[in-house]
Amino acid sequence: MSTDPNENKKDLSQQCESKNCSCKEDGFEQTFNKKTSRRGMFKSLTAGLMAGTGLVNSSCSVLASDETKEKKELEWEEFFKGNYQLMTDEEKEDTVNRLERLYELNHGKKSQISSKDAIKGVLYGYAFNISKCQGYMDCVNACVKENNQDRDSQMQYIRIHEHQNGSINFEDSDDDYFHEVPAEGHFYMGTQCFHCENPPCVDVCPVKATWKEKDGIVVIDYDWCIGCRYCMAACPYDGRRFNWSTPQVPEEEVNLVQHYLGNRLRKKGVMEKCTFCIQRSRNGKNPACVEACPTGARIFGNLLDPDSDIRWVLANKKVFRLKEDLGTEPKFWYFMD
């Protein structure tokens, strides 16, 4: 083949006389003669790499469907995206649109992935009424379903600890009980991520994959996480979970209403945790655990709103937090009636 680009173009054009040839639509005529955007040029480059890897041969015979090519292009763009914190609003929108399209191509269903930012004037807090919790674990089950947690490993963000009356010793408590509740002579306390004001997990992350949002929610960029588990070791409340294998969620049970920093589907080798159901809370709803609690033991709300239920609890009940001496300032309080 000649080294003259124009000569090469002429030779290849003579080879492509079929009406169905993809070159006529998006081949050399567009590449050489049409002005294109940065995004368009990126797609052209991707198409070239696809051709080089065998998806399309030099005679323009299509070996893969249009959807397969689209999927490869989207996966390529997804691989090179940046840290969510550094994305512009436009880049965030492109990212969630890309993930929605990939899920549709892979599963034939439409998902709704949000990139909604923190609501101005909102700082979330949580209170747990020890007197009311009966250990039913409805909250745990609701959390698993809402947040697309791995079924194989039975991952759970929430722990319900059964304590003997008169003692709060988590080393002696039972959080894996299989008997009728409430058990006589016992009381129950729930733990999860406490969304600390001074989160030690954030400080130790070497790649800045976890951070505290303006509304107080501590989040993780799953695609930036390298799975070193430093955050897991640093958390004094056992609030973090690690995916030792690819999370498995039955397709018919996948919650399709998601947030990029919340319950979207994860992968092997990354951390995850409670996000106060960010996909719900940023849309004015209670977390799934609060909604599912049959006894009203869980209270969630805006700490900056003087008329909120959480503020009433803090003002009228004798509250305490776990390990306050550490200075983590968890936004999760306990109280009793």
In short:
This protein is of the alpha/beta class and 337 residues long.
Describe this structure in words.
- This protein is α/β, with parallel strands linked by helices and 337 residues long.
- It has a 3-stranded mixed β-sheet. A two-stranded parallel ribbon has the order 1-8. A two-stranded antiparallel ribbon has the order 3-4.
- Helix 4 crosses helix 5 (66-79).
- Helix content is 31%, strand content 13%.
- It is built from 12 helices and 11 strands.
- A hairpin with a 5-residue loop joins strand 5 (210-212) and strand 6.
- It folds into 2 domains: 5-114, no CATH class; 124-335, 2-Layer Sandwich (Alpha-Beta Plaits), CATH 3.30.70.20.
